[in-house]
TrEMBL record:
InterPro entries: AAA+_ATPase, ABC1_TM_dom, ABC1_TM_sf, ABC_CydC/D, ABC_transporter-like_ATP-bd, P-loop_NTPase, Type_1_exporter. Keywords: ATP-binding, Membrane, Nucleotide-binding, Transmembrane, Transmembrane helix. The gene is cydC. PANTHER family: ATP-BINDING CASSETTE SUB-FAMILY B, ATP-BINDING CASSETTE SUB-FAMILY B MEMBER 6. It comes from Nocardiopsis lambiniae. This is Thiol reductant ABC exporter subunit CydC. Pfam families: ABC_membrane, ABC_tran. SMART domains: AAA. It is a multi-pass membrane protein. The chain crosses the membrane at residues 27-53, 59-77, 145-163, 169-187, 244-268, 280-303. Its main location: membrane.
Length: 580
């Protein structure tokens, strides 16, 4: 069994704890400091009991001097060690959380999670479920270990004072520190699982409502959507109430066991004093230390009740971390950014799952250096999958994609993307300025570089006409820009990256006919001299491209120039608007 399979066979809680393995020493130190703090509290009450019981017999003050000093030392030591324990364990836990976040973001960058998870649910996994690691390490790992160390030591000391009392304390601590937490964990497992799911559902509903607000208002559906948000919130509230009820039951059961054990210790001690097996001072120590000992296990029921929710969060977290990478690790580096820009695609096959149909099924095409090639076809034909492969968001399941005779799958994705850039179907515009959106492609760009890219994308005049120019804020998701401006801005950003190959994926998908024609004209003019792949289902302006490939059901069914395809029977001529 390999390491990955072994990792997956372990439960999510153990896997979450294993994330902290590099800081085992820090957590061990935290447990020792916590045990010292808790032990100091128990010992402090024991010394106080001894001092009060002894003082009742009016001994010389010197006889109490040591206990007075010990009381002060234990009080100070408890506070200092508790502070150091929190400092050490929280530092280790937060550092572990930072590493987990980096792993999550790295996995998201190497996979295609956005097709697997809804945006709100993914946000909940990245934030809430990732932070459950911190909750487990701080509240679910160190308190039980501290209780084990301190509780065992306390039982040994009480057993040395009076064996029956030690056995009774051991039984009480086992019931309060093991039986009650196990019961709390069993009761909290199902609500905890539903609570994590409900939190993800609420996050999804909120994100959908915020992002879709204009359409929801336009179609009169906002009230129904808000009702869904309230339903998700009500469900999460019900889960929280059940969680609180379980915590209350755990606290009540612990208080009941504590009271019964203390009364039992008092009864046994009184009997032992009457029988001459125990003196009065030792009786006071026995009873008060027994009472103080239950502070050791007091946090455990609450910890156990949270394990169900933490476990479900772990499952959701590893659902992201275990997502297979869409791009295999590179086998070499050094792709020449100035080399031949000819693209060759041979027998390319891609599918999204072992039981899924082929999205691309044996595609062959060439993009000669400096030429513009169009790939057209109906929605779902596999066109965008081709763009994903060229931009190294996915690896081929079969066949090859070469740039200048070199297989792109051999090189790191970042090196390939320095050669191949593009404009996606829905380019993301950040809620910042035009300047910052452009400099995303090349942070060291000068003012002249930015304006040159805007001129090539035919956006310079519109930007110059705004009061703030490059410092114009574009609004959330580019709402301050028209659809044509968003596409031109994305093109300018791609040109600024200075690639050798440009991939334009459905650049006019959401534009009106007049804007669409203008954008196509601008795109084709701006990309002259590049090896360009234009992916579209819109046949406007294709008389200007060098060659056209028609893709349907993952296969190339027609190839030729605009004139040649119009002269032949087939899909292209059937759907072309000039012949409709």
């Amino acid at each position: 069994m390999n390491t990955i399979e072994t990792e997956h066979r372990r439960g999510p809680l153990l896997r979450m704890i294993a994330l902290a393995r590099p800081r085992t020493g820090r957590f061990a130190l935290g447990v020792l400091l916590g045990a010292f703090a808790t032990g100091s509290g128990v010992t402090l009450l024991g010394v106080a009991a001894w001092m009060l019981a002894t003082a009742a017999s009016h001994p010389p003050l010197t006889a109490l001097g040591i206990s007075v000093v010990a009381t002060r030392a234990l009080g100070v030591g408890k506070g200092v060690s508790r502070y150091l324990e929190r400092l050490v364990t929280h530092d280790a836990a937060f550092r572990t959380l930072a590493e987990v976040r980096v792993r999550v973001y790295g996995r998201l960058a190497a996979t295609e999670p956005f097709g697997r998870f809804r945006s709100g649910d993914l946000l909940s996994r990245v934030v809430n479920d990732t932070e459950a690691t911190l909750d487990l390490l701080v509240r679910g790992l160190t308190p039980p270990l501290i209780s084990l160390v301190t509780g065992g030591a306390t039982v040994l000391i009480i057993t040395a004072v009076y064996a029956p009392g030690g056995l009774l304390l051991a039984l009480g601590l086992l019931l309060a520190g093991l039986a009650v937490p196990v019961a709390s964990a069993a009761l909290g497992r199902a609500p905890g699982r539903r609570q994590a799911v409900a939190r993800g559902r609420l996050s999804t509903s909120l994100v959908d409502t915020l992002h879709g607000a204009p359409d929801l208002i336009a179609y009169g559906a906002m009230d129904r959507q808000v009702a869904r948000v309230y339903e998700a919130d009500d469900e999460l509230t019900r889960m929280a109430r059940r969680d609180a009820a379980i915590l209350g039951l755990g606290a009540g059961a612990t208080a009941l066991i504590t009271g019964a054990t203390v009364w039992g210790a008092l009864f046994l001690g009184v009997v032992a004093v009457e029988g001459g097996d125990l003196d009065a001072v030792s009786l006071a120590v026995l009873v008060l230390v027994t009472l103080a000992a239950f502070e050791i296990v007091a946090p455990l029921p609450a910890v156990a009740a949270r394990l169900g929710a933490i476990r479900e969060s772990g499952i959701r977290l590893f659902g992201v971390l275990d997502t297979p990478e869409s791009v295999a690790p590179a086998t070499r580096t050094g792709l020449d950014p100035e080399g031949d820009s000819t693209v060759r695609v041979r027998d390319l096959r891609v599918r999204y799952g072992p039981d899924e149909p082929w999205a691309l099924d044996g595609v062959d095409l060439d993009i000669p250096a400096g030429e513009t090639i169009a790939v057209v076809g109906p929605s779902g034909a596999g066109k965008s999958t081709l763009a994903s492969v060229l931009l190294r968001f996915r690896d081929p399941d079969g066949g090859r994609v070469e740039i200048g005779g070199t297989d792109i799958t051999e090189y790191p994705a970042d090196e390939v993307r320095a050669v191949v850039s593009g404009v996606p179907q829905d380019p993301h515009v950040f809620a910042s300025t035009l300047r910052e959106n452009l400099r995303l492609a090349r942070p060291d760009s000068t003012e002249d570089d930015l304006w040159a890219a805007l001129r090539r994308a035919r956006l310079a005049d519109e930007v110059a006409a705004t009061p703030d120019g490059l410092d114009t804020r574009v609004g959330t998701h580019g709402l301050g820009l028209s659809g044509g401006m968003v596409q031109r801005l994305a093109l300018a950003r791609a040109l600024l990256a200075a690639p050798r190959v440009l991939v334009l994926d459905e650049p006019t998908a959401h534009l009106d006919p007049d804007t669409r024609d203008a954008v196509v004209d601008d795109l084709l003019s701006a990309t002259e001299g590049y090896s360009t792949l234009l992916i579209t289902h819109d046949l406007t302006g294709l008389d200007r491209v060098d060659r056209i490939h028609v893709v349907r059901d993952g296969r190339v069914i027609q190839s030729g120039t605009h004139t040649e395809l119009l002269a032949r029977e087939g899909w292209y001529r059937d759907v072309h608007p000039d012949l409709g």
